[in-house]
Amino acid sequence: MGKIFDWKTNIKEKELNEVISVLNEGGLVVFPTETVYGIGANALDENASKKIYEAKGRPSDNPLIVHVSDKKMIYDLTENISLVEQKLIDAFMPGPFTLILKKKSKIPSSVSAGLNTVGIRMPSNKIAHTIIEKLGKPIAAPSANVSGRPSGTNIEDIKYELLDRVSIMIDGGDTDIGLESTVVKVEDDIPVILRPGKISKEDIEKVVKEARVDKNVFEEPKENAVVESPGMKHKHYAPKTRCILVNYEDKKKQLEEINKMIENKNACVIGFKEHKPFINTNKFINIGKIDNLNEISKNIFSSLRKADNMNCDLIVIEGTKKEGIGLAIMNRLIRACNYDVKE
Ligand code: AMP
Ligand code: MG
User: What are phi and psi of 48, to 5 degrees?
Assistant: First the structure.
């Protein structure tokens, strides 16, 4: 059984030493980042990173992101960084941004799931940064959740599923962004977004003139399809209850449709604050104001978990516009609903 350290107000020096010892001994630590919580291990220790796959029940062909505290660590772990890649590093690191680079052999193949590339991220969250810096080694960390389930954005949501699988869980409060990092791979000098996040296509195009969004961001991969980012083909972010995503341009019509759908059903709605008084159920979870995409992104995973605990037969979720971080919100919701979308 693991311990919980409360670092919501400050990092506790003695406990930090314990965290570092656990990581040095090949153990697992759950820690906050600005995106979602991560379940971390020493990225240079093959056995330690294998434990992450076991703890999460993660398929072994889904690579881990390696977290660093400074640029020197990036150059130490990867090779052949191009001019475009360097520009992206300079513009978006530290921050909610992961870049796929060619890896050096010191990164064990269990971390990269056998690929010759590795996803590198430099978190800006103070707790994450401090741990990596003090360890002096990179930390491999996927999102803190059992594989397939919504990512953890606070300790309360994930302690029941992870506390007996790790040594320490660090409570740093709610994460700022609430969605995982933007994952980018540069192909022929063009950044391709494999997974959308807070750093949007528009943000990237301010740094390099063109960026693309991989087609798997919204398309359902065919069975046995070869996808660029192995994570794309696995079940993701999903509550146990069946979910439907409803997304119309006209949000009034969207509300009417939802009211029709849930009539006489034991349904729960994850919807906009403005729609609350009209929706025909007391099982309503407010995800934020219609136009406040940052607020929505912050609430999405905890809302999915809350809805799952309400014992309903159906979860109906309101969709947002696919602009800026809205692209990332919709990418997660579509998967949470297993591609069941009304639009
Ligand atoms: P998570 O583990 O939940 O934080 O998600 C990590 C995401 O990054 C998954 O979608 C992975 O498939 C993707 N990823 C990590 N490393 C690579 C890589 N070398 N190439 C492509 N995608 C990667
Ligand atoms: Mg994940």
Answer: -60, -45
CATH number of residue 33's parent domain: 3.90.870.10
The residue nearest atom 7 of ligand 1, judged by CA position, is 231
Examine the domain organization and report whether 287 and 175 are in the same domain. Answer: no
Domain count, the chain: 2
Whole-number Å distance between alpha carbons of 220 and 98: 23
Q: DSSP labels for 230-263?
A: GGGGS--S--SS-EEEE--SSHHHHHHHHHHHHT
Closest by CA to 238, choosing from 332, 137, 117, is 332
Q: Are residues 319 and 261 in the same domain?
A: yes
Q: Which CATH number fits the domain that encloses residue 287?
A: 3.40.50.11030
pTM: 0.96
Q: Which two tokens stand for residue 9?
A: 């107000």
Query: For residue 157, what are the β-bridge partners?
Result: none
Q: Which residues surround ligand 2, an ion (CB under 5 A)?
A: 143
Regarding whether 251 and 151 lie in a shared domain, the answer is no
Instruction: List all residues whose CB is within 6 A of at least one atom of ligand 1.
Output: 62-65, 100, 112, 115, 117-119, 142-143, 180, 183, 194-195, 228-231
Which distant-in-sequence residues (6+ apart) come within 8 Å of 187 by Cβ?
none
Work out the average pLDDT over 38-67: 96
Q: Is residue 223 situated within a structural domain? A: no
Q: Determine the distance separating the centroid of ligand 1 and the alpha carbon of 143, expressed in angstroms.
A: 10
CA–CA dist 3, 170 (Å, integer): 8
Domain-embedded: residue 273: yes
Tokens coding 98: 């992961």
Which of 44-53, 109-118, 256-265, 299-308 shows the lowest per-residue confidence on average (mean pLDDT)? 256-265
